[in-house]
Amino acid sequence: MGQGLSCRGSHEHGLFRAVQHGDLQTVSILLKTHPSLIHRTTVYDHHSPLHIAAANGQIQVLSRLLDGSANPDVLNRQKQTPLMLAAMHGKIDCVEKLLEAGANVLMFDVCHGRTCLHYAAYYGHSSCLKAILSAAQSSPVAASWGFSRFVNIRDGRGATPLHLAARQRRSECVHTLLCSGALVCASTSRYGCPGSTPLHLAAKGGSLDCIRELLAWGADRLQRDASGRIAYVVALKHKHGACAALLNIASAQPLVWPSSLKIISELNPEAKLLLEQALMDANKEREKNILKGSPYSLPSPAHSDQMDDNISEVSETELCCICFEQVCTIEVQDCGHQMCAQCTLTLCCHNKANTSTSNPTPPVCPFCRSAISKLMVIKIETHDDIDQDGTTDTTCFKPSKSRKFRNMNEGSSSSFKGLSSFGKMSGRSSGMIASENECIDDKPQ
């Protein structure tokens, strides 16, 4: 911290310095001799020992203070709690300890009317953000609001945590918030330009990664702020050419995380991650085509040739029977049929849920027409994965040939022929693409 450490006595001054530097022995001695020191605060900022410990990541001292009956929700001059300062400075151990001690996640400060969730998103501390969201799901205070309302909580200027993360180029936090139910098209009231969506703010910050995430989750390129501007115009104004090219409504529409996948009752986390990667890879192929020949052309990954070589060596019996290019990585749990992640995603994009009905139907397997209720990542053991102690590693994404032959035989049905026209979504994966690295000024909005 370093500020406001002047105090009303030598014992207080000694305690604050010991807390700041993590001198647990001195802290313990002073609190044992003068127990009332635990409630003292600095003169100007009114920081308690708990605030100082949380902001400096002194987890042992913080634990000692909490054991000494320190209030986890004590407020400083700006009505900030120790949890807010720990989230602001990215001190994950302190965040977890304070949450364990029952710290209130719904406290608002007086500077900006923000919560600990806003601070974690603004400063890009994704681990702290995840810890707060996890605690909020079981917190009685957040439960009284509802988790969805908490994720979309607004600060004093009408900004949600997603708005702040998008403006500050925090792509990992943007992804976490979107997966937790953040509203992708919510508008601000006074933060930035009134009526700004997260996409407007990402365009202003010039973050391709944030724009990718927002577009993949259904952000509307046509939505306007209070000044009548779409995100494309905002990107042009701030001279973020590559972002503007992707946001241009004349460019190809990006693929969006399909609504039909959201209604599958059990989407294995590993399968979800694989499908999300397939979606991002497909959109990056779209980006390459949009930016091709422009000053903002994105470089091809150095390892793409190696990936192509690996694919060419795969046996035909291991290839997806829809596109015949990718190796099968996704299995339909009930019937056991297998597809590659790209074709699974395309299948769900093709069979979008009907939003006009209260009970939308899930996508169906293209081979047997049974409803898909659960998707799993294929995990087949190989001889190379057998350890010396006889155990096996089953994390290899290699399909079984017998099941592949069954897929090929059943693939001659009319359902397979119907899928063949759109099975190839993005071709072979081209790997990760470097994003634009443009600096922005961190100025008050």
From TrEMBL:
| Start and end residues of each RING-type domain | 320-369
A single GO molecular-function term is: ubiquitin protein ligase activity
Q: Which keywords does the record carry?
A: ANK repeat, Metal-binding, Repeat, Transferase, Ubl conjugation pathway, Zinc, Zinc-finger
What catalytic reaction does the record list?
S-ubiquitinyl-[E2 ubiquitin-conjugating enzyme]-L-cysteine + [acceptor protein]-L-lysine = [E2 ubiquitin-conjugating enzyme]-L-cysteine + N(6)-ubiquitinyl-[acceptor protein]-L-lysine
Question: What PROSITE patterns does this protein's entry cite?
Answer: ANK_REP_REGION (PS50297), ANK_REPEAT (PS50088), ZF_RING_2 (PS50089)
Q: Spans of ANK repeats, please give.
A: 45-77, 78-110, 157-189, 194-226
SMART domains, from UniProt?
A: ANK (SM00248)
Q: One Pfam family name from the record?
A: Ank_2
Q: Where is the composition biased (Low complexity)?
A: 411-427
Which pathway does it serve? Protein modification; protein ubiquitination
- Cell compartment(s), UniProt: Cell membrane
The membrane topology noted for this protein in its Swiss-Prot or TrEMBL record is: Peripheral membrane protein
**EC number annotated for this UniProt entry:** 2.3.2.27
Q: What is this protein called?
A: RING-type E3 ubiquitin transferase
